[in-house]
């Protein structure tokens, strides 16, 4: 099982990657850790003419404080997030979400920028970023721009990125020790979440991000509003699926997914051990 | 294209297609068939090798992505003075049945021990979740990893 033929270019700089994207548009795909793109290419769901390898770009692998926020380079691998003392202190929700992506081998390769830009609604990290009200920093020919994570996902595997833009950084506010929860329901180890849920308490984000509850990662805005209005946890949990239109597949029916979202929010709000 | 790979300390210049997976290059171009192909979908871990000392699934890495990095396969693990402590522990604890998953298990274990994920049985089981043993012989595999970790820390096997 190997990908269809493609031309390969290794980008030496962000500027060169942007230039190549500008020349080749939709026929090109960026390759970082490759753990979203390569499986799709092996199954021939993706057949790019050109693969632009950005995996070796310098200066995009970091977790640091920046103006009261935490800034994370797009090429930072999941294992780096998982083991980052800064993230453990400043954004434990995101650290935990990174620690339950795939398995050790996958976390040694996969990058946060790749996971975010791929736009799979079954991915864990985008839901954590959504609960944290994070920001995606994209760079294109005109320079950098910040995109709120709420505005980033526009459809299944579709993002607000222009064809000649790439994700260079993710930003999240400092969680200041506020409660959080991450729940991932799966049938077997290493499976994608049947449904997942990320919760971060006010004041940092006051957000709830949902995994596999629709064509994109999305927020449970009705449940968030109930919490802000002071509703008890049980009442908010009943609204976890109110804004979602989950699909049915071999893993779950839509109604089971709704049930899971409500149950997982109740568990997250009760502060039960994550997973 | 020509790709320069360093495998088990030896340098190779290989004429390959960009789409060739690391596992195929190791097996078919270099004859290193100790790296097994199981699921080919980054699930089973049979194809695990070390890239700069960290476990990766070589069915989900292009060979060209491994350029400039040190690749270690099961063939390169034993030193001049005999088996690697993890290999020794798998033999001592009988951490294998049919043996198909073993190269991947051993290399995953080398990485997880080095990363400090072998503190207890629970952490070893969690860190090995990306390696499947269809003989379901997990008990002895976990015992072997714990035994190797103790031996490598120097507090007895």
Structure description:
The complex is a heterodimer of chains A (275) and B (157). Chain A is α+β, with helices and mostly antiparallel strands. Chain A folds into 3 domains: 7-53, Uridine Diphospho-n-acetylenolpyruvylglucosamine Reductase, domain 2, CATH 3.30.43.10; 63-173, Uridine Diphospho-n-acetylenolpyruvylglucosamine Reductase, domain 3 (2-Layer Sandwich); 180-269, 2-Layer Sandwich (Enolase-like, domain 1), CATH 3.30.390. Chain A is 32% helix and 24% strand. Chain A contains 12 helices and 14 strands. Chain A has helices at 14-24, 37-42, 78-82, 85-90, 92-99, 104-109, 112-118, 125-131, 149-152, 221-228, 233-237, 254-269, and strands at residues 7-10, 28-31, 50-53, 63-66, 69-73, 135-140, 143-148, 153-155, 158-159, 166-173, 180-185, 195-200, 207-211, 218-219. Chain A is globular and about 55 Å long. The two termini of chain A are 32 Å apart. Chain B has 5 helices and 5 strands, in the order ββαβββαααα. The model of chain B has no long low-confidence stretch (mean pLDDT 96). In chain B, α2 (85-92) packs across α5 and α3 packs across α5 (138-153). Chain B is of the alpha+beta class and 157 residues long. Chain B folds into 2 domains: 2-76, Beta-grasp domain (Ubiquitin-like (UB roll), Roll); 85-153, DNA polymerase, domain 1 (Orthogonal Bundle). Chain B starts with a strand and ends with a helix. A 5-stranded mixed beta sheet of chain B has the order 2-1-5-3-4, with helices on one face. The chains are: A alpha+beta (275), B alpha+beta (157). The interface between A and B is medium-sized, with 30 and 35 residues.
């Amino acid at each position: 099982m190997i990908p269809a033929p493609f031309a390969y270019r290794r980008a030496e700089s962000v500027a060169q990657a942007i230039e190549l994207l500008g020349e080749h548009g939709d026929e090109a795909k960026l390759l970082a850790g490759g753990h979203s793109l390569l499986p799709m290419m092996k199954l021939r769901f993706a057949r790019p003419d050109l693969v632009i390898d950005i995996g070796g770009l310098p200066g995009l692998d970091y977790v640091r404080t920046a103006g009261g926020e935490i800034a994370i380079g797009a090429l930072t691998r999941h294992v780096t997030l998982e083991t980052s003392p800064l993230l453990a202190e400043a954004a434990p929700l995101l650290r935990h979400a990174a620690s339950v992506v795939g398995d050790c081998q996958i976390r040694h390769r996969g990058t946060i920028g790749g996971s975010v830009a791929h736009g799979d609604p079954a991915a864990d990290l985008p839901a954590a970023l959504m609960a944290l009200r994070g920001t995606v920093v994209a760079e294109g020919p005109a320079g950098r721009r910040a995109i709120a994570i709420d505005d980033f996902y526009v459809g299944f595997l579709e993002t607000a990125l222009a064809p000649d833009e790439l994700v260079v950084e993710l930003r999240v506010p400092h969680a200041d020790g506020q409660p959080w929860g991450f729940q991932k329901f799966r049938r077997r180890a290493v499976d994608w979440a049947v449904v997942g849920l990320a919760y971060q308490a006010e004041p940092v984000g006051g957000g709830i991000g949902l995994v596999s509850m629709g064509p994109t990662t999305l927020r449970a805005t009705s449940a968030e509003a109930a919490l802000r209005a002071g509703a008890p946890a049980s009442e908010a949990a009943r609204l976890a699926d109110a804004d979602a239109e989950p699909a049915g597949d071999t893993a779950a029916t839509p109604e089971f997914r709704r049930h899971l979202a409500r149950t997982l929010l109740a568990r997250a709000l009760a502060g039960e051990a994550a997973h | 294209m020509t790709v320069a790979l360093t495998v088990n300390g030896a340098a190779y210049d290989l004429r390959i297609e960009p789409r060739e997976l690391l596992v195929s290059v190791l097996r078919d171009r270099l004859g290193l068939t100790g790296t097994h192909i199981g699921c080919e979908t980054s699930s089973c871990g049979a194809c695990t090798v070390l890239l700069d000392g960290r476990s990766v699934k070589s069915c989900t890495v292009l060979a060209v992505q491994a350029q400039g990095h040190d690749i270690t396969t099961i063939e390169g693990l034993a030193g001049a003075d005999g088996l690697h402590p993890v290999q020794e522990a798998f033999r001592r604890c009988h951490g294998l049945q049919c043996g198909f998953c073993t190269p991947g298990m051993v290399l995953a274990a080398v990485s997880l021990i080095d990363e400090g994920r072998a503190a207890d049985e629970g952490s070893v089981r969690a860190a090995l979740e990306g390696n499947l043993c269809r003989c379901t012989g997990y008990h002895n595999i976990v015992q072997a990893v714990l035994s190797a970790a103790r031996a490598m820390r120097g507090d007895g096997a």
